[in-house]
Write a structure and sequence with these properties.
3-stranded mixed sheet, 2 domains, mainly alpha, 6 helices, Muramoyl-pentapeptide Carboxypeptidase, domain 2, two-stranded antiparallel sheet
Amino acid sequence: MKPTFRIFRHTLFFGLLTLLTQIGGLIWLLSLYLNHMVQKRRRIWGLRWGIFIILYTLTTIFIVPPIAKYYFDRVPLPVFSNPHLEPENRVYSFFNRTYVKPGLLQALEEVAEQIQEKYPGAAIWFMDANFPFIDGYPLHPHLTHDIGKSIDITFYWKNAKTGVPIRKKSFAAWLWTLGGSEAWRVRLFKSL
């Protein structure tokens, strides 16, 4: 493979992973280095991706939360621990896009408890919040998710016959959110 294309490809991966996850680009570079060190003697197909996935997962679970808490005053939103406050999709949490200031987490938990009291069985489903590090770091495509005090909350509908919440959104609903309708989002900027 030509060196120019290889450099372009790795630069593209670095940029895309950094844009999506904030730490993915650095983990990608580290996995390239480790892959190079391991494969000096023998080529193992797919090792680079295996190293990347293992390093990224371990970093996301064990390293990012304490650093975000002690140095940047951000905590991750619950993924499994609170049944009344849960991610719309666990990918948001895996991509480190669900970090908030502790005051916002406390406010969300209180609101989730109030909703639970009024509507038993209901839950708050969240999507993007913020990255774990650095105030002002953009969370694309959002303009305001950069200081730890913003979160997207999904609304849901219940099936009229069964009363079961409908979690899947239609393509039309997705287009509507792109159209700028704020009815789909709740922002809790100044509640802290």
